[in-house]
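Course assignment 3, question 2. Fill in each field.
Student: A.L.
Task: Predict the tertiary structure for the chain below.
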Amino acid sequence: MRDFLTVIAILIILVLSAALAVPYFIDWEARRGQVESVLGEALGLPVHTGGAIELRLLPTPEIMLSDVSLGESGGARLTARSVSVEVAPMPLVKGEVRVIEAALDAPVLTVRVGEDGALAVPRPRSISAANVEIAIERLGISRGEIRVEDAAGSEIARIGGIEAEVVAASLAGPWRIEGEAQGVPLRIATGVREAGGDMRLKAVLGHAGESHLDIDGALKLTNEPGRGLLPRLAAAVRYTEPLPGAGPEPRQLALAGTVEGDVRSLTVRDLGLDLTHGEGGKDLALTGTATLTLAGRPSLQASLGGRRVDLDGLRERVGEAAFGLRASALLDRLPMGLDLSLETLVVEGEEFGPLTAALHRDGDVLALSRFDLGLPGETRIAGRGEGLVPSGERRDDLAGTGSVSLNIGQPLVLARALVRMGVPQSFAEALAGLPGLAASAELALDHGSIAARNITVKAGESEVGGAIRFLPADGNGGRPRYEAEVNARGVDITDLPRLDGLLALASGADIGLSLDARDLRIGQAGGDALGRLSALVEAGSQGIVVEYLNASGFGGAQIEAQGRIDAAGGRLGATIDAEHPQPLAQLAARFLPARAGAALTRAVADGGALHLTLEAGRVDAGAPLFVKASGKIGQTAVEMGLSLPPAAGVGAELDVSLTAGDGAQLLGQLGFDVLPLPDGEGGRLSLRARGPSLDDMAGRFSLAAAGASLSGEGTFSFSEARPLFAGRVTMTAGDLGRLAEVMTRPLPGGGALPLELQADATFGSHGLSLVNLSATAGGMPLQGRLTFGEDGRVEGAIRFERLALADVAALALGPLPIAPEGRAWSGERFAAAAPPVDGVLTLSVDSLSLSPRLALSDAALRLSLQPAGLAIDELAGELSGGRIEGNLSIRREGSLAVLSARGRFTAIPLSSLAGGALTGTLSGDFEVGTAGESPAQLMANLAGGATVSVANTSLPGLDPSALARMVSQALAAETLRPDLPAVTAALAAELDKGAWPVPQIAGPASLAGGILRFGPLTLPAQPGTAEGSLSGTLDLRSLAIDLRATVVTATSPKGWSGPPPQATVIWSGPLDAPARSLDAGGLANGLAAIGIVRELERIEAMEADARERAFHNRRLRAEREQRAREAERRAAEEARRREEEARRQQELQRQEDRRRLEELLREDSGQQGPLPAPADTPSRLLPQSQEGLAPRPLQLPAIHHLPELVPNGAQRPSMSPTGGGQDSGAARPSSRPPAGPPLDIRPTIR
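Answer field:
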């Protein structure tokens, strides 16, 4: 047996050795056909190899092939550069294959998609091969690729760069694949394929926190004979991609839905497109459906809708980040269609909607088949079109055609919304004035050029039509060109927006304009006010050609212009005649810059006729261009000559002369606000300048009007980059008040105010600036600087020697009316407010008058000029060593003036306020306000509050000891005179002897109805002398004071009843001269009460004396009666005492008898025989019988009772002298035993 086993072992070793060594000695490549045949039969697929073949059996079977191809050539197939497969040997015995390790290098899987959606993949042809149980422990794929072809073999899609590891329990699953494809991480896990072909599928592409796709659902694989593999997917799909940006909150795009379909078409239900930020915040939320068609030419069709989309939030948080999405690269190449529906669209804070749109893109072609957007004001925009939109950087190659329409039902509502969005105010105002608007046009875009034709615009009775085209520069130094053909009828010029922006836009470009506008009107004017304007103009770098320009109507106006000017010379002439030039000025103002348009409108505002002749020309190519203008604007004669050199630096000349018979009219034509006051002096403006060009000229100008003259010398420039004038100016006026009145700004005060002024001036597009200003106004010098902005705003700093605060307030209130005789304030209404001014001035004043008697020294304030009034801020100055700081605001509302003020005053000497009558200082703060149409109403409506503190002062005529002295003197007099006049006179004389010292007193004050009230304030007490309080009112309406000081003595005099003596001192009357009076009625009444008490006391003393004598007599009689009763009592007491003594003696005798009896009984206690029974009668002691005498009984007093035994410490009943106790009158139970009969003691007979 042992030998047999040995032989078996040797055979096994030989077999294993052969299995290990033999494969290395076989040339497998020479047997390639046999190997391919065996492998083909095992796999059920054609197998072709083109490279090395290696095979080994131990330690585990392994085969390695190079250049392998599985499947039919030209059909579905799998190729690989190399393949190695290592299998476990033991499962092979059972007919199973367990791949321990396999590797595919550069495999390429080619899949074909049939027209019916079936997939042709390499698969076993024999059933036996397909039914082999195969398990894969590890399959490594390197540099793999999947190619998808259609039935004709054309490639549809390719997925390369596959690096993965595959694990499968069987070919029916479950499968697990991990790796990456085209650099995107990939994880796929499946379940076991069920009988119906369903297989659970879960796949994740990408990393968490980056772009990734999640698929969770079921994959159904169906094999149908003759058709191939039919896969079908039903899964929940979610794609998320972070959005770039540096914001603090993470943002991402999320696309989710339920996908169903096969390789021909995928349908997405419950599609959701969200743009989120932070924790759940959504900037965009759209829902809908989508269909991805894969058969034939792939395409995507989606339908999305949402309730509200905030484009502002998207632009802020997302910006253009969405254009960098990974998904956009695929969508950019995929034909797609989109139906979009939004309820609300938020743009610049305004809500638009609803929005519906339908777009389709196929390559570079973008078609908009439907676009409809609602805007505020019942406005709708609709459009459609189709164009070429190149991808990438070729944005200039845009081309397309389309149409657009606009309908506005409520232009005012839309205009308000547009203003809030930042649209220019002028455009919004023009739109708001329209009754409604309907517009349409056909648009064309062709490689940078834009054209709109068949334009129609209707707004009420106005109609505008025509065509517009813009041609960009050709890139060879050419200029862009604007062409317009405009036909209009019934247009209201006042409804037109400002068109100066269009002229600025067209600067630097060639312009061609054909215009025919009829029935032009201004406002509601009709008839001869209607006008017509027609023109054909060409303007460019070579010159200007006016074929014709005619304007007629407009209330009798006529304009004609024609000519040509180019580099070779030419002439252009124009005449303007208008009896009423205001309509023409309004029309021209729409095309001119705002400042020039406003100046032109003011120049013809007086209603005078306009007659001008204009001529411009050049003699030849080398001659200068000349421009001449002459005529009249109203009553002002105009002469102007301008000569421009053909080249810069040669020399330019400008001469302007304006002469008017009315200087105020000339100022108005120059753009100043003036009143039509008569001026017999006339006015004149002259300007003469020379220089290399209009941008660099030097000269001088002079202006004389309204009694004032202004002249200057310096440089002139008509360049926007430089000031129009810069130089030294001088101004003189015999009466500045007259000029100010003409210019609608009357000065406060009266009398002539001569002025001399010099300054360095700069005038340009930013306004007028005056620096190094030095002037003398009314003999008072002032210095500083001033700036007048283009918008009229005034800024600067000026220093005055003297200035009244009332004059500053008059800038808002107008000249203050003078109060009539006997009244503090005038009831006359304020004058109309001056034209509004805006600006800030810093004023420094050596002496700022607050009132005729009070002035601040070294004062400073900031004056804010406002359209409706003024504000004085940071007012500060010194007043007689103290300081005042505060703010004041004055606002005008028509004839009503509203005033408010607040401030603080510190250590103001009372002597400066009261004319030396008081010492000490005043401090505090206040806040007041009022409103009224006159100074009297302002004072009557004053209201507010204050806190006041007075230090180191005294109240004269208020001697704190005066009241006590006066009362003492009155009470010390023999005859008391309590009548009120005498008391008042006496108290007044005493009060004048001193003053009440006040080291410190403070308290609040209230202001209502123009009356200032304070107190009562407690005056510093004078120890042992008096106490006091102070209260009062100041009537600002009449400047009257009512001050009351109440004085109370520290102690009450003898005989004084009620509160201590007191009196009230009253100062009332005009503020500058109050009169003192006294209220001593209470004091007089108190003194009168003391006099009455004194008289009553005298009468009472007399009555008391009489009562005392009667009382004395009654007392004597009572004393006698009392003594008699006392004697009787003593006699009775003596009798009772003697009786008691007798009874006591009897008691002693009884006690003695008893003692003797007891002794006798003790002596006889030895005798025999019974003692005789006691008798019922009282005991008797019978003596021994004597011879011949009968026995005689011995009578003893009866013993009624024995002494009562009382416990120790108990109270024995007391006995009264009559024998009764204290409770003798009450029945008390006796504790003694009943008394027996009296003892009858008889002697024994011997």
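Instructor remarks: The first helix runs from residue 2 to 21. DSSP finds 19 helices and 58 strands in the chain.
Grade: pending
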